[in-house]
Amino acid sequence: MPKFYKIITYGCQMNIHDSEKLAGMLALRGYVENDDESLCDVIVFNTCCIRENAEDHAFGNIGALKQLKKRKPSLIIAVGGCMAQQAGEAEIIREKFPFVDIIFGTHNLDEFGILLDRKLSSNKKIVEIKDESGKIIEGVKPLRTSYPNAWVSIMQGCNNFCTYCIVPYVRGRERSRELMNIYAEVNVLVMSGYKEITLLGQNVNSYGKDLGDGTDFATLIEKLSEIKGDYRLRFMTNHPKDLTEKLINAVAKNEHCCHQIHLPLQSGSDRILKLMNRHYDSADYLREIEMIKKYMPDCAVSTDLMIGFPSETEEDFLDTLKMCEKVGFSSCFTFVYSRRRGTPADKMPDQVPDDVKKDRIMRLVECTNEKTRQFSSRYVGKTVRILCEDIDKKKNMYIGRDEYGRMGYFPSSRNVIGEFVDMKVTSANGISLFGEIE
Ligand code: SAH
Ligand code: SF4
Ligand code: F3S
Questions:
Q1: Per-residue pLDDT reduced to its tens digit, 165-186
Q2: Cβ of residue 236 lying under 6 Å from some atom of ligand 3
Q3: pLDDT for res 64
Q4: Which pTM does this prediction carry?
Q5: pLDDT, position 15
């Protein structure tokens, strides 16, 4: 009988990729993935703390395992990731959930396998959180489960300290991987048939600053253009304060780069952007949009928007709506500001009341949905190149994405997962396009 594991992941793409690394360490020790928790020998929670609801979610799900652990004492439950990394949080987890066996943070995620070995040989509870990690450890082999897509982490951490955000406190300072290590990883992925590579970092366009040899993100994009093959290249996330013309030029020149840029605006109000410590204003942002369109007129720009930051007035909020109208984002992720312990914004006066936040998020979502719909409706009647990723069993259709990030659904008599197909768009709904392939 094989040993089974399940990893429950919360949060961003980087965390999802971290879970692939955890899966790699478990696979190396002979574990096989199984969705049925009652059959598992190891269950890992890879947590997030970006907003309160992400934490609540994890707490609820960890608590739900109490009975299972009682019935099956040999089950190992581990809690790691950003939530566990927060100051004092390991103690809280330990007290609230005494049945948890291993608690680890973001800075020692790469050592999870060793912690597990230790737990198995000693049967002692393990709580290990490191304050800061050193250089990035190479060689942890992720177990990739998202063919034809593959994620490649190019850097860790964040130096920006946006006043609302917890990430710099739980992910540490920016650390870039060596350019040739990234090149080698992408090259091997393309050679082994992956069709879409997404470069990941909290702030990819500040890549290389810490390497001290003049390497920047544009250098990396140029270097990667040497890798031949039929594949797409994406990257996320970009910070507007570091978006250079050199980078946009490099992206436009690299034929593999998708013409899609995720550029979080957060707020349309200059006053709020300043309080957020974002280092750009709405005019800078609009200039960047112009620059992107100069090099790539068809480029889709998506964004993150937040409402309810401390002291946000109706006027500030209307500035966000105005930017939404002006820029015409291809899609938006919208968030309600959530107080995070230890961040400067948590201590700011004038926290926005919940009912005001509720009203604003509803109005924002109405506006962004309309923009998304308008962007999609332009597709109807056109043919788009879709990379087929999966099959949607409920809809009984194949599913994939075009280079601008739109989801495409279509029927097919043969399995086309991992192939690029031309889809004639017959209808659109939100971010989804429906159509037929030849
Ligand atoms: N590094 C990226 C994204 C980080 S988190 C960037 O700088 O854009 C993803 C999004 O979560 C952010 O863009 C922001 O909109 C949102 N977010 C971060 N902290 C938040 C908080 N305290 N409350 C609500 N949303 C938050
Ligand atoms: Fe958070 Fe700002 Fe860093 Fe993004 S850039 S992770 S929002 S501190
Ligand atoms: Fe969450 Fe950590 Fe990502 S806080 S959003 S999992 S970097």
A1: 999 999 999 999 999 999 999 9
A2: no
A3: 96
A4: 0.96
A5: 97
Ligand 3 center to 150 CA (angstroms): 19
For residues 121 and 71, give the distance between their C-alpha atoms in angstroms, rounded to a whole number. Answer: 21
CB of residue 344 inside a 6 A radius of ligand 2? no
The stretches in the chain having pLDDT less than 50 are none
Q: Quote the ligand 2 centre to 40 CA distance (angstroms).
A: 35
Cα(404)–Cα(386) distance, integer angstroms: 10
Q: Is residue 236 helix, strand or coil?
A: strand
> Quick one: which atom of ligand 1 is closest to the CA of 339?
22
Q: Which conformational region is residue 308 in: left (phi greater than 0), alpha (psi within -120 to 50 degrees), or beta?
A: left
Provide the pLDDT for residue 123: 84
Amino acid 139: pLDDT: 82
105-115 pLDDT per residue, tens: 999 999 999 99
How far apart CA 125 and CA 106 sit, in angstroms, is: 18
Whether residue 165 has its Cβ less than 6 Å from ligand 2:
yes
Q: Which residues of 366-389 are buried (b: 16+ CB within 10 A; e: fewer)?
A: ebbeebbeebbeebeeeebebbbb
Atom index in ligand 3 nearest the CA of residue 10 equals 6
Probe target for ligand 3 pocket from 9, 50, 133, with the most ligand atoms within 8 Å of CB? 50
Delineate the domains of the chain, giving CATH numbers in brackets.
3-128 (3.40.50.12160), 149-377 (3.80.30.20), 383-437 (2.40.50.140)
CB of 332 sitting under 6 A from ligand 1: no
Pocket perturbation via mutation, ligand 1, pick of 167, 204, 306, 309 by most ligand atoms within 8 A of CB: 306
Per-residue model confidence (pLDDT) at position 1: 78
Q: Average pLDDT of the chain?
A: 96
Decide: 160 and 203 in contact? Cβ < 8 Å.
Answer: yes
239 in ligand 1 pocket by Cβ < 6 Å? yes
